Each structure stands twice: as C-alpha cells, then as structure tokens.
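Reminder to self: keep the SMILES exactly as supplied, no canonicalising. Ligand is flavin mononucleotide.
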Amino acid sequence: MSKVSWKGSALLAPVPPALVSCGTLEQPNILTVAWTGIVCTHPPMTYISVRPERFSYRIIAESGEFVINLPTASMAKTVDFCGMKTGAKLNKAQHCHLELLPGEQVAAPIIASCPVSLECRVTEQKALGTHTMFLAEIVGVQVEERLLDSKGKLDLRQAGLLAYAHGEYFALGRKCGDFGYSVRRKKK
Ligand SMILES: Cc1cc2nc3c(=O)[nH]c(=O)nc-3n(C[C@H](O)[C@H](O)[C@H](O)COP(=O)(O)O)c2cc1C
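Structure tokens returned for the bound complex:
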C-alpha cells in the first residue's frame, strides 16, 4: 500500500464537534469545539483548546467553567452555525432556539437537546500556540433519560451522535463491536 508523507498537522478524525456552553443561564454563550477529548479516567478529566481571540475564551478563563454538550446529527446545522458566528454580537442560544437548562455543578448552562452534557471545572490553562488548552475535571454528567435501558445502562446507539472528520460532519454509522469483544469468550 503506497502512502504519501505530509508535514505534521491536526489530522485526527473522527472527533466530536462539541457544543461548548459557557457563562450563565442568564448570559450564556455557545461555541463549537472539535479539539476536545478525554485525558484521564479517574479523576475524569477532559480538555478543550480554544483560540484566545474567541469571545468565549475570556468567559471560560474568568469563570473557570464550561459544559461540553454532545450534539445529535440532526443538530449539524446548529453546530456549524455556533462555530461560524461569534457570541459577541448575537445570542446564539436564542437564535438557534436552543433550550438551556441550569448546570447542576457549574454556573454554565447545559443544552437540553444534546443527549449528553459534561459539566467541567478548569484546573489548568496552557497556551500552546494558536490555541490555549483548558484542562478540566468533569464534575458532573447529565444524560437524557430515554437513553437508559431497564438496568440503568447508557445506550448511546439511540443517541444519534454527530461526528466531525477533516472538515465534514457525519452521523455515526452502524455498531461493529464493543469494548473487549475481540477477547471475550462466548457464553455456553
Ligand atoms: C466544526 C468546528 C470546530 C471548531 N473547533 C474549534 C476549536 O476546537 N477551538 C476553537 O477555538 N474554535 C473552534 N471552532 C471555531 C469557533 O467555534 C468559532 O470561532 C466561534 O464562532 C467562536 O464563538 P465565540 O466567538 O462566540 O466564542 C470550530 C468551528 C467549527 C465549525
């Protein structure tokens, strides 16, 4: 198989194009963030990398709080819009008809139509170059109740989450395995 060599670039895909909410229920802002991920299980830690010129940057730096909301494929247009327009001149939640609910652990609101919301408190800030990374502890998780099965287990297959890969949005495809299935013994 022949390959082409490129210089280093930010080509990790797919990633979640998260709707990050910040500020307060009364004065909210939302921006789209694709540079995010999990960095530790216990304590549960995440990061978002935000350019200092974003309107949200100062809000997050000053409040030390934000919420990572995972959007559905049906929200793709809203996700793109919140990543194109600045909240400096527009209330994006109102414009996009997004219902906001209070966070339980942070002052930043959660987005009702997103099936999963991670409430985050910043622990460290690191300027990396174009982006500054906010390292944060996930201090609370809000999940849509309809996604829980009879045993209370989360079934994300029903969530219809949105993915982002190299400038394009995708609906998640079919399931092709689960954690540990390659080594699991079949039940007799
Ligand atoms: C799919 C997508 C992913 C994005 N990811 C990031 C990101 O990881 N970090 C960032 O600073 N901006 C990112 N942006 C751009 C911001 O969301 C955009 O500049 C937004 O308008 C900032 O809003 P604000 O000025 O209200 O904070 C992304 C935009 C899109 C469409």
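Points to follow up:
The radius of gyration is 18 Å.
The pocket of flavin mononucleotide is lined by residues 17, 29, 31-35, 49-51, 54-56, 80, 83-88, 131, 164 (CB under 6 Å).
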